[in-house]
Amino acid sequence: MAVGLMMSVTLTGGRGTSSAAQANKGLRIGMGSLPDQLDPAAAADNSTVTVVKGLFEGLVRLNAAGQAVPAIAKSWTLSKDGRTYTFALRGDAKWSNGQQVLASDFEYAWKRALAPEAKNVYAFNMYMINNAQNYNEGLLKDTSKIGVKALNNTTLQVTLKEKTSYFIQLLAESIYLPVYAKTAKANNQWATDIKSMVTNGPFKLKTWKSNEISIVKNPAYYAAQEIKLPEVRLLLPGNPTVAYINKEVDWTGGGGEESVDYTSLDSVSSRDLHEGPYASTYFYQFNLTKPPFDNLKIRQALAMAIDREALRYGNPAFGLVPPSIHGTQLNFRTEMSDKMYFHEDVAAAKQLLKEGMREAGLTKFPSFTIIVNEYINHDVIATKVIKDWQKNLGIEASVEVQSFEELLDNRIHQNYAIARAGWSADFNDPASMLELFSSQNVSNDTGWSNAGYDRYMQQARQAADPGTRMQIYATAEQLLMNQMAVIPLFYSVTDYLSHPNIKNVYVDYDGSIAFTRGSWR
Fold first, then answer.
1. What distance in Å separates the CA atoms of residue 440 and residue 465, rounded to the nearest whole number?
2. Does the predicted model carry a pTM greater than 0.90?
3. Residue 109 and residue 31: Cα distance in Å, rounded?
């Protein structure tokens, strides 16, 4: 599950240290795993993305509010048809070897990331670039026809296959980061060895061992004055929570493998335990082709009869877009409350069930099974939901645990009644969540299709004004919930331990730990 946090948090190691002494203090992060390669294009897990985003920087970066802001690109222009972006790169952007960051480094990196043989899992995030998908799927061999071209050392031109309003947000993702072309061309293993690592971000690699990665402030970074931490050490202790309690690390937790060990917490460390949202929504999907779930009122009744607070997982969800996804100025969920879609109401659920059963010609609701995959607590959650249905609606159901592969196969082939599902954002925009339910989306295995919803998604992609676009997304989400194509259960959260004297360090929406603008109080 992807993670995100739309707020700054604080942490440090050692209480009572003076501000003057902490000004030059580094940050120690306890990790559950460390990457064995640091290729931005191949960065797929949270620990790798955490390190990569400290070492590399793209045309834009995300600020603490989740907004894309200029980075290596100091500015850009957009053609009248909304398809061609022309980026002006900073002339003072340098690689760690002292060479200038060139527009051709971006062109090379993007085409390299799209190469079919690379098999990069996030290559689809580049498919809005003209001919990118055709090249990635092996239908096009001529890379000159891909819509990215370095016009000169500091000008990059990108042509999209259609107007895509969220394209700038996408540019902050790891798949869009540049690589030093000369080294990457000469050594295809460059990203596995510190000796061949050439980077362009706010930090540069100091040490890389099996149990520690140390990165230090890059004095050649164009915005070096914004970087306050002299060093960040990503450590692999046996138990990150115990390491935090022993003051061996200043932070642990987040969306990766470094989850908090609650059994080890004491009264002091418990005060440093925080919870934040990340960009993933947990839901159940119906087999809409199978009675009685083809009846809207029955679906609505089931959705309204669940006590989401009692599930004790995440934050109750009544929509699809999680709170860590950026909207116009604030996060989307703050600007567009999901409380306007539907709410829990047992009395209304009973009436809807009664009407739905009458419409379906049922005198007794048939028992059914929820299929879930093998993983911690999926069956526990399903059992709690079933108890609510039994208590509030008199409905009988059971749980069947399957392998993840079997669950996916059954969902794709509509071989289920109700199935566990979920979605995590691939970039920080509502489109990353809502486009899942477009009819043409290959990941949409719900069986739900709506021409009106598809039109809203198309309109949003074309809308230049952010406020208009967010309103369209809200309208589409309202339609999705009105049709109750899925039952949203909760927006995922992540726990982390952080000392109170570090600021501007937080879990980003994608589960990586954002520390580049962090500092000690």
1. 25
2. yes
3. 28
